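ok here's Peroxiredoxin, seq below lol
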Amino acid sequence: MSSPKPRVGEKISPFALSLADGSGTVTVGEEKDRWTMLFVYRGRHCPRCKKFLNKLNAALADWTDLLDVVVVSADTQVKAQADKKEFGWDFDLCYGLTEEQMRALGLYVSDPLSEAETTERFAEPGAFALRPDGTLMLVDISNGPAARPDLDDLLDGMRFNIKNDRPVRGTA
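and the structure came out like this:
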């Protein structure tokens, strides 16, 4: 079951996410100097997520030249740290996304198919672009691991949107 979609063109309620490396938190939705791209992934159990996030990490310098990148799952800190160590990711990796936060973002929430997959509910993938004032500009939500935005196309589109101060679309 999905949650109500967040409304593009409106500010989201800021929420803090804990960094996997234990260095503190990142607050998504607060006013700041730069745009933010938030990527939600399913968690350590998902090989498609690793493939997607490895591509993101390979192009991270291009992304961070333009905006801040935050990646989060509902995983525990131990699982998130294991992913960061195994894959050498350089982006801000966060953990502990709550079901309330998942639903506030309009994400699909899944129960595990077995304990071999994971033991807790988790969010299906999502990507959210936020303007510096915390306004939601772009939303891409999937109900499963196979549907993801093409990172090159997404980055190209974000460059265009930011450079040309494009209005939010899909508000009707």
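fwiw Residues 3 and 107 are 6 Å apart (CA to CA). kinda neat tbh
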